[in-house]
Each structure stands twice: as structure tokens, then as C-alpha cells.
Amino acid sequence: MAFKSDKPFYYSLETIRIFLAGLHMSPISILQGISGTGKTSLPREFVKALVSDTNYIGIDKDNTNNAPYRICAVQSGWRDNMDLMGYYNSFEHKYKETDFFKALYLANQPKYSDTLFLIILDEMNLSRPEHYFADFLSLLEQSPNERYINLSNTPDEVLPTLIKGGKLKVPENVRFIGTANHDETTLEFAPKTYDRSNLMEMPKNHPDKKNFKQPEKSFNVNYGWLATKFDEAEKKHKDAFSKFHLFINSDDMKYLLMDKGIGVGNRLEYQAEKFIGVYVESGGYSA
């Protein structure tokens, strides 16, 4: 598949299917791979391909990118939520905003309320997400109407207008995409992060460009429409999930996993049902 941007980007349909299904499976996706495999460009170009409305294209009068995504570079040494979200400086009577805070606040703007919005945590494992992203790992387990980040001990008058009572909403249409290299500068993810994420290994080789054509049409995909299609796909392909359920709960598989010290919990089955439905509906293999 080719994404038309300032320059074309090429990805296999299989890569797109896994990424798309992961957006329904979990609010968090992790893209792993060596440098140059498109870990950052995939979510950026994907979400740009969903919008043709001029409200989301180009640069606005304030020289701000209108596209419904933001890239936030993770720094080594991040330890807690303050590194991610910022903090209130009582001496200056100001809230010290971070790029991540600005991205999440932007996603709350009415303009983006019905658009898929991606917040990309670039090089997510330069520090431990289980520390700096811990509040979000827990929060995203809650129902969408309960997802509020608490900016405690911060006076209302120093916070932007959309923040009421010191609480900033994590909108349902937001997905967090982490990119991860694995070398001497990075850290391993803990099971807590892996368990809650759609994990993708980005292929080392890009598909042959000769097999791709530039898209002929532009689309404007609303989040409400996308969420409805996700739910419909999940219901439509119950049989495909049932096959997986029987396989993962078979005696042979249980013994194999037990021998490896691997447990299968309710979360895996819940995520698999969401993932399999969208993956099969998008043309993926179903035995």
C-alpha cells in the first residue's frame, strides 16, 4: 500500500492490517524494529491518509501543523508522570507544559473530536514506560468516560480553559503509538506494558514499489464511522475468534505454555477478539 504525502511511503498490506487491527485491540501500539523500517512514518502517514478535509491539511495561520497527530520524543532519564505531562511551578505560578501535554490538550479540541488522533512516543524505551507512563497504563484500562488525568495541586487559573477541576480528559479517539529500537541505549519493556499493547515487529525490507499504485481517491474518515466498522467487524467474525479460543485453550497448548511459564489471562482473549475481527475483515487470513 502506498501513502501519498510530500513523498510516497510504501507498506505491505499485511503491515497495514496489523496496525489497523491493533488500533481496535488496544489504545497502545508498540512498533519495534531497526532504524529505517518506518516505525514513526507508518502512524504519521496512516492518520494523514484518513483525512482530506482542509481543516486537517497543511499549516494554519499560527504556523501549526493541522494533521491529527503529534510526535513526542521520549528522553532518557524520565522517571515519572511529571516528565511526561509537566508540572506546576509554584515559584513562577506557571504550569510547565511538555510536548506530550500539548498534544493531549490539542486532541481535546472540538476540531478533532470525531477524528482519529495519534500521539506518537518516539523511542519510547529510552526510559521505562512503566514509570513515566504508569498513570496512562492504568487509566487506559478504564471505560472511556472515566479516563481523566489528574493535574493535582495546580490552580485552575494557570491551566488552559479545557481543563476543568484540574482534570484533563483522554479522549476515546486518541491512540498512543510507541516506537522502539533495541540497542545499548534502550531498555526492555516490562510485561505490564507488553500485556496492554498491540506489539508490531516492523519488517526490515520494504515491499517492491513496482507492485504499488498511488491512491486515486482521498478520504475523510470520521472516528465515529471507524469505531462503528470496528465493532461490526468484531461481531461479524466471531467464528474466527472461536477457532482461536479453542486453540489457545486446548490441552496441548496449555501444557506447552505451562512448560514455558506463560499464563493466558482474560485480557489476551478480550484483545484477541477485537484484533481478529478487524484483521480478518480487512482481508487477513482466517483458517
Q: Could you characterize the architecture of this molecule?
A:
With 287 residues, this protein is of the alpha/beta class. The protein has 11 helices and 11 strands. A hairpin with a 4-residue loop joins β5 (86-89) and β6. α1 (13-25) crosses α11 (266-281) and α8 (223-236) packs across α11.
Question: Care to give the gist of this entry?
Answer:
The chain is α/β, with parallel strands linked by helices. It contains eleven helices and eleven strands. The chain has helices at residues 13-25, 41-49, 81-85, 99-107, 129-132, 134-139, 191-195, 223-236, 238-248, 251-259, 266-281; strands spanning 2-3, 9-10, 28-32, 69-73, 86-89, 94-97, 117-122, 148-150, 167-169, 174-180, 198-201.
Number of helices: 11
The CATH homologous superfamily of the largest domain is named P-loop containing nucleotide triphosphate hydrolases
Structural class: alpha/beta
What's the architecture of the largest domain in CATH terms? Answer: 3-Layer(aba) Sandwich
Strand content: 15-25%
**Major sheet description:** 5 strands, parallel
Helix content: 25-40%
What overall geometry do the principal axes of the alpha carbons give?
Answer: globular
Low-pLDDT parts are none
**Helix and strand string, N-terminal first?**
EEHEHEHEEHEHHEEEHEHHHH
CATH topology of the largest domain: Rossmann fold
The Rg value, from CA coordinates, equals 20 Å
User: Termini distance?
Assistant: 24 Å
CATH class of the largest domain: Alpha Beta
* Number of separate domains: 2
